[in-house]
């Protein structure tokens, strides 16, 4: 490597440590926590919808909802693990999720497939809105984490597209 492009090992560790301390104490943790609670709530709501969907397009919507559950579960896990890597503390307790999510609550009981697809598509749009809203602030503190957000937006928007198509 070119001498001007390398950093001494102790300087790299110090930069990583400074970033981790900043993540644990400030805006990066709060922003990632906002994403985490919305992803956990999206997972739970999509699973609830999966169990309660009825009607002519039941099977197609039922299967699409499992994809949403998987995307949200995986995304939430990725965000929580990134928080821990940055020495921040994720909070996925049910009381925290219920009080902090941006997603409106689901109704109880069965719902027709088209209505279910529209409802969950709206919840996905809300979660994507949270990811987009925090993007610039996250990017300012940790561009590597922004890449995770971009991947989640892409995956969730694919799920949104498929559910919206099923709702027509």
Question: What is the total number of structural domains?
Answer: 1
CATH architectural group: Up-down Bundle
| Widest beta sheet: strand line-up | 1-2
Termini gap: 56 Å
Give average pLDDT, whole number.
Answer: 90
CATH topology term: Ferritin
Number of helix segments? 6
Number of strands: 2
Rg value: 19 Å
Tell me the β content: under 5%
Runs in which pLDDT lies below 50 for 5 or more consecutive residues are none
Q: Main sheet? A: 2 strands, parallel
Shape: elongated
Under CATH, the homologous superfamily reads Ferritin, core subunit, four-helix bundle
CATH class: Mainly Alpha
GO molecular function, one term: oxidoreductase activity, acting on metal ions
Protein name: Ferritin
Domain Ferritin/DPS: 30-165
InterPro entries: DPS_DNA-bd (IPR002177), DPS_DNA-bd_CS (IPR023188), Ferritin-like (IPR012347), Ferritin-like_SF (IPR009078), Ferritin_DPS_dom (IPR008331)
Structure in words:
- The chain has 168 residues and is mostly helical.
- Helix content is 79%, strand content 2%.
- The protein has a single domain, classed as Ferritin (Up-down Bundle), CATH 1.20.1260.10.
- The chain has 6 helices and 2 strands.
- Strands 1-2 form a two-stranded parallel ribbon.
- α2 runs antiparallel to α3 (58-85), α2 (27-52) packs across α4 and α3 (58-85) runs antiparallel to α6 (143-167).
- It is elongated, with a radius of gyration of 19 Å.
- The N and C termini lie far apart (56 Å).
- InterPro entries: DPS_DNA-bd, DPS_DNA-bd_CS, Ferritin-like, Ferritin-like_SF, Ferritin_DPS_dom.
- This is Ferritin.
- Residues 30-165 form the Ferritin/DPS domain.
